[in-house]
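User: Structure with C2E, tokens only please.
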Amino acid sequence: VLQEIARRIAGFSADHGSVARLGGDVFGLLVGERGRAASVDIEVRISEVIEACQRPVQAGRKTFECEVSAGVAVSGLDGQDARSLLSHAEIAMHRAKKSPSQRVQFFATEFGDQVLHRQELIQSLKTAIENRQLQLYFQPQFDRLRRNTGYEALLRWHHPLLGPISPAEFIPLAEETGLIVKIGDWVLEQAVATLKEWSEQGFSGRIAVNVSALQLHDPGFADRLSALLESRGVSARLLELEITETALMHDIELAMTTLNRFRELDLTLAVDDFGTGYSSLAYLKALPVSRIKIDRTFVTGLPDNEQDQALCRTIITMAHTMGCEVIAEGVETEAQASWLALAGCDELQGYLLGKPALKGFLPENIDI
Ligand code: C2E
Ligand code: CA
Ligand code: CA
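Assistant:
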């Protein structure tokens, strides 16, 4: 396929420029002579190249259709030398890839800053573990009688220059770059070591760890995790793996080997952010799910919002029907806590009862 695409692009370069394969599925095309090519002209020409590349490619007995995106940097305007022109064209190309409608994207200066920030973050995230910049915080979870049943482990990144960076910002980067696999392993090691430490101090609660879908795609994940638990002498039942409803359902086929192995190894799942995605009940029933987490957005409106009330009641009933426990996250007021407890929600988590903190700074159990 690459050879055929290369031939098609080369066909265009014959009359006006040169072509090179820059790596993987990225080609570079040098168009026009100095000062000659107007941008309208370029856009028309690039569109022709794209159209040619998007025609089906026959390879062996199969036919492939390629999606092509192009980024353009104009000499003199977007850079003076080959290096900056190439890098700016590439940045524009990534923009085009993300846009559903725009196949050709011209470089704009403001892209540069964002991408630079992104690339800087990725660079420092690569060494964040070695540089001891990652920390696990723990947020307590409570049953209806407000006995502490466990903790959710939440990752924190303290960047030396930028300060604390929210996981909401860096987890997606870690997922895009695959760094999440290494980071996820680190989180699990820390969590299991903490479980060991706490059980020696007489605490019998569990720790819930957030996992990304990407981690579950590795068919060896369950066995490695089980070996880790065994080497520390920690029961698999004390560890809970939180995965968001959207991630779980989206990639379920890829994660199936791992998920099937979980049941044999006594590992269980909590479905995070429940209600924000679309769950297949058939899948939910088949998976080793032990807990459903009601998303914060449904808790915020309690106790007054009737729609939130109805949704929470429905989730609780459904979860119990399937033999799962329910925990509500983002509980911030007494009114929310008592409404949920009355509605039959098994556990609560939120700023009202305890904020995430480093393990040395966790409050003692809250008394009622
Ligand atoms: P999440 O799993 O839904 O985590 C709950 C988030 O809500 C946490 O934000 C927590 O600090 C915050 N929170 C807890 N109680 C309250 C409350 O009462 N009110 C409000 N307004 N917020 C509350 P955080 O720590 O910033 O984490 C954001 C997200 O990052 C998490 O959402 C989770 O999806 C992801 N994440 C965190 N740690 C990890 C990790 O180790 N691995 C992976 N894959 N994802 C992680
Ligand atoms: Ca979570
Ligand atoms: Ca959540």
